Amino acid sequence: GSSRNIYFQILLMTPLDYLLNYINPHILDRNEILKSNIANAHKAFVEKKQFFSEPFLLEANVWQPHGPYVLDEDCNAINYNLTKNIWSTDNDSIDKYLDETRCVNKQLKEFISYINKFDSEAIIILHSDHGHAFYTDFQLPLVKWDKKSINGRSSILLAIKASKECRSKAYKNISPVNIFRLVFSCINNSDPQFLED
User: Fold this and answer.
1) pLDDT digit string (tens) for 74-91?
2) Which helix (H) or strand (E) holds 161?
3) Alpha-carbon span 94 to 33, nearest angstrom
4) What is the DSSP letter of 55?
Protein backbone atom coordinates (compact mmCIF):
# COMPACT_ATOMS: atom_id res chain seq x y z
CA GLY A 1 0.00 0.00 0.00
CA SER A 2 0.95 3.64 0.07
CA SER A 3 3.09 5.21 2.78
CA ARG A 4 -0.15 6.39 4.41
CA ASN A 5 -1.08 2.75 4.92
CA ILE A 6 2.25 2.01 6.58
CA TYR A 7 1.73 4.86 9.05
CA PHE A 8 -1.84 3.73 9.59
CA GLN A 9 -0.74 0.19 10.38
CA ILE A 10 1.88 1.47 12.82
CA LEU A 11 -0.77 3.61 14.50
CA LEU A 12 -3.04 0.55 14.83
CA MET A 13 -0.31 -1.07 16.94
CA THR A 14 -0.24 1.73 19.49
CA PRO A 15 -2.48 2.68 22.40
CA LEU A 16 -3.27 5.91 20.53
CA ASP A 17 -5.48 3.92 18.16
CA TYR A 18 -7.64 2.72 21.05
CA LEU A 19 -7.95 6.28 22.32
CA LEU A 20 -8.90 7.71 18.92
CA ASN A 21 -11.36 4.90 18.33
CA TYR A 22 -12.92 5.53 21.75
CA ILE A 23 -13.26 9.29 21.14
CA ASN A 24 -14.58 8.95 17.62
CA PRO A 25 -14.30 5.75 15.57
CA HIS A 26 -14.59 7.76 12.35
CA ILE A 27 -11.52 9.97 12.86
CA LEU A 28 -9.45 7.52 10.83
CA ASP A 29 -10.74 6.02 7.62
CA ARG A 30 -10.16 2.39 8.52
CA ASN A 31 -11.73 1.28 5.25
CA GLU A 32 -8.65 2.44 3.36
CA ILE A 33 -6.66 -0.68 4.01
CA LEU A 34 -4.27 -2.37 1.65
CA LYS A 35 -1.90 -5.03 2.85
CA SER A 36 0.57 -7.22 1.12
CA ASN A 37 -0.29 -10.86 0.67
CA ILE A 38 1.28 -14.02 -0.72
CA ALA A 39 -0.39 -13.49 -4.11
CA ASN A 40 1.37 -10.10 -4.39
CA ALA A 41 4.73 -11.77 -3.67
CA HIS A 42 3.98 -14.48 -6.24
CA LYS A 43 3.06 -11.91 -8.88
CA ALA A 44 6.18 -9.82 -8.16
CA PHE A 45 8.40 -12.91 -8.40
CA VAL A 46 6.92 -13.91 -11.77
CA GLU A 47 7.38 -10.36 -13.09
CA LYS A 48 10.95 -9.91 -11.83
CA LYS A 49 12.55 -13.37 -11.96
CA GLN A 50 14.26 -12.78 -15.33
CA PHE A 51 16.29 -10.01 -13.68
CA PHE A 52 17.69 -12.31 -10.97
CA SER A 53 21.07 -13.94 -11.34
CA GLU A 54 21.61 -17.21 -9.55
CA PRO A 55 21.98 -17.95 -6.78
CA PHE A 56 19.60 -15.50 -5.14
CA LEU A 57 17.61 -15.04 -1.96
CA LEU A 58 13.97 -14.04 -2.23
CA GLU A 59 12.40 -12.75 0.98
CA ALA A 60 8.74 -11.78 1.08
CA ASN A 61 7.28 -10.25 4.21
CA VAL A 62 3.50 -10.05 4.20
CA TRP A 63 0.84 -8.92 6.68
CA GLN A 64 -1.39 -11.89 6.04
CA PRO A 65 -3.29 -13.11 8.06
CA HIS A 66 -2.59 -10.15 10.37
CA GLY A 67 -5.67 -8.03 10.96
CA PRO A 68 -7.59 -6.20 9.82
CA TYR A 69 -9.04 -9.12 7.92
CA VAL A 70 -9.96 -8.01 4.43
CA LEU A 71 -10.01 -11.29 2.46
CA ASP A 72 -12.34 -14.27 2.65
CA GLU A 73 -11.26 -17.91 2.48
CA ASP A 74 -11.23 -17.71 -1.35
CA CYS A 75 -9.08 -14.55 -1.23
CA ASN A 76 -11.88 -12.23 -2.32
CA ALA A 77 -12.06 -8.77 -0.75
CA ILE A 78 -14.69 -8.52 1.96
CA ASN A 79 -16.58 -5.65 3.48
CA TYR A 80 -15.61 -5.91 7.12
CA ASN A 81 -16.09 -3.55 10.04
CA LEU A 82 -12.55 -2.22 10.29
CA THR A 83 -13.36 0.13 13.16
CA LYS A 84 -13.40 -2.70 15.66
CA ASN A 85 -10.44 -3.92 17.63
CA ILE A 86 -8.69 -6.46 15.38
CA TRP A 87 -7.95 -8.64 18.41
CA SER A 88 -11.54 -8.84 19.53
CA THR A 89 -12.47 -12.31 20.77
CA ASP A 90 -15.93 -12.26 19.26
CA ASN A 91 -16.75 -15.13 16.91
CA ASP A 92 -16.92 -12.83 13.89
CA SER A 93 -13.30 -11.70 14.33
CA ILE A 94 -12.07 -15.24 14.89
CA ASP A 95 -14.02 -16.48 11.85
CA LYS A 96 -12.53 -13.70 9.68
CA TYR A 97 -9.04 -14.58 10.93
CA LEU A 98 -9.60 -18.26 10.10
CA ASP A 99 -10.99 -17.38 6.65
CA GLU A 100 -7.97 -15.22 5.86
CA THR A 101 -5.68 -17.99 7.12
CA ARG A 102 -7.36 -20.37 4.65
CA CYS A 103 -6.69 -17.79 1.93
CA VAL A 104 -3.02 -17.66 2.99
CA ASN A 105 -2.79 -21.45 2.77
CA LYS A 106 -4.20 -21.45 -0.79
CA GLN A 107 -1.85 -18.68 -1.91
CA LEU A 108 1.13 -20.44 -0.31
CA LYS A 109 0.36 -23.71 -2.07
CA GLU A 110 0.18 -21.94 -5.44
CA PHE A 111 3.37 -19.95 -4.86
CA ILE A 112 5.35 -22.93 -3.57
CA SER A 113 4.18 -25.04 -6.53
CA TYR A 114 5.40 -22.29 -8.87
CA ILE A 115 8.77 -22.02 -7.10
CA ASN A 116 9.21 -25.80 -7.28
CA LYS A 117 8.59 -25.70 -11.05
CA PHE A 118 11.05 -22.81 -11.37
CA ASP A 119 13.69 -24.51 -9.19
CA SER A 120 13.00 -27.95 -7.73
CA GLU A 121 16.11 -27.63 -5.53
CA ALA A 122 15.01 -24.34 -3.98
CA ILE A 123 15.09 -24.11 -0.21
CA ILE A 124 11.77 -22.67 0.97
CA ILE A 125 11.15 -21.38 4.47
CA LEU A 126 7.75 -20.36 5.78
CA HIS A 127 7.95 -18.52 9.06
CA SER A 128 5.51 -16.44 11.07
CA ASP A 129 6.48 -13.79 13.58
CA HIS A 130 3.82 -14.47 16.20
CA GLY A 131 0.55 -16.22 16.84
CA HIS A 132 -2.89 -14.74 17.32
CA ALA A 133 -3.82 -12.45 20.19
CA PHE A 134 -7.48 -13.30 20.63
CA TYR A 135 -7.11 -14.30 24.26
CA THR A 136 -4.37 -11.86 25.22
CA ASP A 137 -4.85 -8.86 27.47
CA PHE A 138 -1.95 -6.58 26.59
CA GLN A 139 -2.72 -4.43 29.61
CA LEU A 140 -1.50 -7.25 31.86
CA PRO A 141 2.21 -7.73 32.56
CA LEU A 142 3.63 -10.85 30.88
CA VAL A 143 3.93 -12.69 34.19
CA LYS A 144 0.13 -12.51 34.55
CA TRP A 145 -0.73 -13.89 31.10
CA ASP A 146 -2.54 -17.21 31.32
CA LYS A 147 -1.40 -20.30 29.40
CA LYS A 148 -4.01 -19.80 26.67
CA SER A 149 -2.66 -16.29 25.98
CA ILE A 150 0.96 -17.39 25.97
CA ASN A 151 0.28 -20.37 23.70
CA GLY A 152 -1.84 -18.35 21.26
CA ARG A 153 0.58 -15.46 21.01
CA SER A 154 3.86 -17.38 20.97
CA SER A 155 2.88 -20.21 18.63
CA ILE A 156 4.56 -19.70 15.28
CA LEU A 157 4.67 -21.55 12.00
CA LEU A 158 8.03 -22.79 10.80
CA ALA A 159 8.14 -25.04 7.75
CA ILE A 160 11.24 -25.77 5.72
CA LYS A 161 11.37 -27.44 2.30
CA ALA A 162 14.89 -28.65 1.53
CA SER A 163 16.76 -31.65 0.23
CA LYS A 164 16.70 -34.83 2.28
CA GLU A 165 20.36 -34.36 3.20
CA CYS A 166 19.71 -30.80 4.33
CA ARG A 167 16.64 -31.78 6.33
CA SER A 168 18.71 -34.38 8.18
CA LYS A 169 20.69 -31.50 9.74
CA ALA A 170 17.52 -29.94 11.17
CA TYR A 171 15.91 -30.94 14.44
CA LYS A 172 12.39 -30.81 15.84
CA ASN A 173 12.70 -27.74 18.09
CA ILE A 174 14.88 -25.56 15.87
CA SER A 175 14.26 -21.91 16.66
CA PRO A 176 14.54 -18.78 14.49
CA VAL A 177 18.12 -18.07 15.62
CA ASN A 178 19.27 -21.21 13.79
CA ILE A 179 17.18 -21.19 10.61
CA PHE A 180 19.73 -19.48 8.39
CA ARG A 181 22.58 -21.35 10.06
CA LEU A 182 20.84 -24.46 8.74
CA VAL A 183 20.33 -22.90 5.28
CA PHE A 184 23.96 -21.80 4.99
CA SER A 185 25.16 -25.26 6.00
CA CYS A 186 22.93 -26.75 3.30
CA ILE A 187 24.21 -24.35 0.65
CA ASN A 188 27.86 -24.87 1.65
CA ASN A 189 27.46 -28.60 2.34
CA SER A 190 28.99 -28.09 5.77
CA ASP A 191 28.08 -28.86 9.36
CA PRO A 192 25.79 -26.20 10.83
CA GLN A 193 27.18 -24.03 13.60
CA PHE A 194 24.02 -23.83 15.69
CA LEU A 195 23.55 -21.44 18.58
CA GLU A 196 21.62 -22.31 21.69
CA ASP A 197 17.88 -22.09 21.00
Assistant:
1) 999 887 655 555 556 677
2) strand 158-161
3) 19
4) S
